[in-house]
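During the reporting period the student researcher (J.K.) took over the structure-prediction task from the postdoctoral fellow and processed the backlog of single-chain submissions. One of the processed entries is reproduced below for the supervisory committee.
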Amino acid sequence: MKHIQGAFRHLNVWALLSLLLILLIFIPNVLIAINLFTDPTENWEHIRQYLLKDYIYNTLLLVIFTALTTMLIGTSLAWLIVNYQFPLRNFFKWGFILPLAIPPYIGAYVYHGMLNYTGFIQVTLRDSFHIEVNQQYFNIMTIPGAIFIFTLFLYPYVYVITKGFLEKQSASLFENARLLGGGPLLTFFRVVLPLSRSTIVGGVVLVVLEVLNDYGVVSYFGIQTFSTAIFRTWYGMKDLDSALKLAGILMVIVIAVLMLERLVRGKKRYSYSTANIRQIQPQPLRGYKKWLVFGYSLFIFSIAFIIPILQLVSWATMTYRKVISDEFMTLIYNSIIVAGIASTIIIIVSLIVGNYTRLHKGIIPGLSSRVITLGYSIPGAAIAIAIITLFIMIDGCLESFSAMFNLDTAIVLRTTLVMLISAYIIRFMAVGYNAVEGGFEKIGSSFTEASRVLGMSSVKTFFKVDIPMLRGALLGGFILVFVDILKELPLTLFLQPFNFSTLATQAYRFASDEMVHEAALASILIVTISAISIYVFHKVLDRDGS
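J.K. obtained the following structure tokens:
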């Protein structure tokens, strides 16, 4: 009887913790939803009548065309890497992931700096070849230019997921297609795309969510989207209600995207009747085909990674003496500290909830695992405005508490890092949780059960058995979350306390003030840390066989 009571109390503690986490993530969404039905302000009437159509039109243009271009490039590169052998294939296999290390807003600064009138390309044409060009052909600060930027630095989402799927497919599928007379293009369109549809859609949805979340590119290019509108409404008009309404419409678009994903995926599933699957062996290419594939791969890798990196290094060598200072070192410290704290909290919470959902069945565990991953689908601007509303309410309660007990100093959380870190946790919890959950699925529960049978308590089992076996997943999850937070711009711009900046916000401010050269050093640090982290994560996956 005592054991049953102890287990019941233990279960209540886990359940209570899970419910608190659900509320932390769910309440901001509820605030946004409720505000959609409140009375409109004069500002909102103006936005609805004159501006809302442009916000919707521009946002949908960016989303649709970026989805199409990233799908085409990411899927084609994945198929070439999996199916063919060509020069530098082993390098490109992981090199195609590196553009993820460059945040799109940094890519936007770089390409605008290169293509404008005083940029390297036009200066070279004028000075070396005496060619004057029409400026409209080099103006990248347009919607097509933004689509180009998003495509270059977001296609790895589609590439990574599709490549992982194709590597696990049976070679007989594609060999049979070739025996039936299907050439490479026909096989790609008639076999590869239908087979990979569900996987490709998953990668494209990640791209779409990143486009909806973006603030740096669209703000720098002057494109009116929901992210820029929310920022302007809150900071320019000081109208929180209208900003919440814009965030609510943005959330409706996100929900529509997720529902469309379900619809496009359909109910088709592919499985094998045997476990003896012969994986695809890359076929060597010869003649012009080899160099054609190599040229395509080198071209994509060059414009998505090599050229931006070389330009950043060139600018950094020109300005590093002016940029490096005590203030710049403080930026590095701020970036690492806030990313480290938030990443650590996310991994700890992911461990607790992941272990709970693994060992217990029921409504609360199932709900916890679903709700805890919702934050990643919510754009940063929407999370920020909801968090501001929530913390204003919390600060009001704390002020009332202070007045009730005649306390001299009231606690004001909305001017501290607590608000920013809370937003990071909501936004990126899914990244850490998915990594930890994948680790739990790999180790299973047999070792945990054996430990409990041998008399070890659940807490000791958790620390001495489960965590050591999860080291790879924990490290991988921490790296992914750390990199995402390091690059994050919208949340940091919205919620950073007074006199607090990070490398991302400093690079944005320099670029916005037309000091693109000065933004290079901060950008290089972000890209370098991200690239090293991606490489380490890649090695961790290889070592663990994931």
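The committee noted the following: Strands lie at 84-85, 283-284.
J.K. will present the remaining backlog at the next meeting.
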